[in-house]
Design a protein that fits this description.
175 residues, alpha/beta
Length: 175
């Protein structure tokens, strides 16, 4: 980016660690697309508040956990809404797009479950047959990999996703 756009100012930082003071009231919009799920909300709210101009909008497109059960991917919706209120924000517009992401999740889940898992099983079986010593040495790692794969497949299982999460697009403003 620096070579292609030499005049462009780049902020090389995580969002929570960006120099917010240097960008105080600089932006009309902050857009977070599938990134909020990885951030610490307590650190995000002050940065957004600092860098947005008065009357600015915070746009979020991400999925949220409906409750604390199951996997820990995504922010808990109740924590997010509570944090917004405590920090003086309110959601001005909100659209639930959960149903719209389910076809993609079905496809990715099918690939993982019906293509990649059998390929890995085949590869590990061949390794056991052709190189039993190597397979023995890697057996625990293979078991952990299989266990992690199962958990990942459950996260993208469309039925589990729809039951435990919601995918939301929202506009947020200061109260």
């Amino acid at each position: 980016l620096k070579k292609k756009f030499p005049g462009l100012e780049l902020i090389e930082s995580t969002f929570e660690n960006m120099p917010a003071e240097a960008h105080a009231a600089r932006y009309d919009v902050v857009l977070m697309s599938e990134s909020l799920q990885f951030m610490d909300l307590e650190r995000v709210f002050p940065v957004v508040q600092k860098i947005l101009r008065p009357g600015g909008r915070w746009l979020v497109v991400d999925f949220f956990r409906k409750d604390e059960l199951g996997d820990k991917s995504g922010q808990p919706w109740s924590n997010f809404v509570t944090g917004l209120k405590e920090e003086g924000w309110h959601i001005t517009e909100q659209w639930d797009h959960t149903e719209n992401v389910l076809p993609l999740l079905r496809y990715v889940h099918m690939l993982g479950n019906d293509v990649f898992r059998p390929l890995l099983d085949y590869a590990f079986d061949k390794l056991k047959e052709k190189q039993p010593g190597v397979h023995y040495l890697l057996e625990e790692a293979i078991d952990r990999l299989n266990s992690k794969g199962e958990k990942m497949l459950d996260v993208i299982n469309p039925a589990s996703f729809a039951a435990r999460k919601k995918y939301v697009l929202m506009a947020i403003e200061r109260s």
